[in-house]
Amino acid sequence: MIRPLLVLSLVVAAPAAAQGRPPLVLAAASLQESMNAAADAWAKQGHPRPVVSFAASSALARQVEAGGAADLFVSADQQWMDALAAKRLIVASSRVTFLGNRLVLVAARSNPVRIPVRPPAALARVLTAGPLAMADAPVPAGRYGEAALRSLGVWTAVAPKVVRGDSVRAALTLVERGAAPLGIVYATDARASSTVRIAGVFPARSHPPITYPVARLAASKNPEGEGFRRFLVSRAGKAIFTGYGFTPR
Amino acid sequence: MLSPAEWTIVALSLKVGGVAMAAVLPLAFALAWLLARGRFPGKLLLDALVHLPLVVPPVVTGWLLLLAFGPNGPLGSLLERWFGVSVLFRWTGAAIAAAIMALPLMVRAMRLSIEAVDRRLESAARTLGAGPWRVFWTLTLPLSLPGILAGAVLGFARSIGEFGATITFVSNVPGETQTLPLAIYSALQQPGAEATVWRLSAMSVALSLAALLVSELLTRRVRRGLHVL
User: Fold this and answer.
1) Mean pLDDT of B88-101
2) Which CATH number is correct for B4-224, 1.10.357.140, 2.120.10.30, 1.10.3720.10, 2.40.50.140?
3) d(CA A222, CA A24)
4) What percent of chain B stands above pLDDT 70?
5) Which residues from B are below 8 Å from A when comparing CB atoms?
6) Inter-chain residue contact B89 with A70, CB threshold 8 Å
7) What is the pTM of this model?
8) CB contact under 8 A, A193 and B192
9) What is the per-residue pLDDT for A29?
């Protein structure tokens, strides 16, 4: 009974809202292409196009903590969403983990290397043939990569060969530019680049789950923000992200 | 050439840089004057404080600004109470970050030009009956003007290049706080966006170079002025 009423009120409110302010979305930098595509798709349905600020999840969360009035927060890990939830800065009921990602090994397209997952000695031999590009240790992608190499039993052997980029995209660039033959990035990063290929996918159980939560901020006053959040977690919304290599949750 | 969206970024950068420079100009001049002419306890400390943004990591400046201008921060709560505005995620916040980062460079250039004014000329004017304000408006200010403008243009150049403090303080909001350096950073995160990176970088270099040339030309006028005296 409540549902149809809510939908009705949204429909009635839509024309007025369409002339309203666009919502401000704070999104992890790794979502750049996909979130822009989602915002475009939402705008095509007659809504004001959300304005999206892309930066590190940590920087965005600190801006929210300082009292920044945005509408939605999309984090690249649960840790920063938990931090905001603990301070009651997000609407708890609006928090949805809507996307997942896979950790992969990328190589230049011209590099025919094959990655043996087992035994550890064979994997270590391939990974230590040259520098291995990874994101910085405090960055989630760097943490996940280290966890995966540990669980596959090769971290001690590989660690001296690791070169760090300040973000996962910086690690990708190292492989794109030939500075490192192999790199550990997300499946979505590999998909975004035309010069690298996925040489191997880490077993999902070799690292903590890679998930992306979205939530409405407690300070949000723009109803368009909640509308866009519902679109993001809807089947149509998730389909856009799947096209960029994310796994729907 | 640039796409309409890229021109928006350039226009925003010019607005942020221009407003930052204009807004901080009086403060920079006052500080330059104090440091050039003043004798007071704590002058050394003030000098060091003014130069702090030049050497502190920009990310620290940005974080401190975030704390100060958040609605619960000391300055943010005042803005909220007096004007009902917040600068977070707004271009005004980007201008504040740019102004803080530009201040030391502006003060340095202005201070040099004020110190270059021959005090004997001022004494002569005073003995001829001019009051202190008249000496300031008709002698000191015109003589130091090229240096003041050089400092202002230098500050403008620094403003449009500001990155670290801005993204930490007011995020990366297109149309509000996404100035040239932030847009370049965003494009760098996107594989295949090299063409955008090149165009925006070229624009950034061109603007900075133009500002530096103007500033240098003005500085030379200050030096030439010295020889005339």
Assistant:
1) 96
2) 1.10.3720.10
3) 9
4) 97
5) 63, 66-67, 69-73, 76, 86, 88-89, 167-178, 186, 188-192
6) yes
7) 0.81
8) yes
9) 86
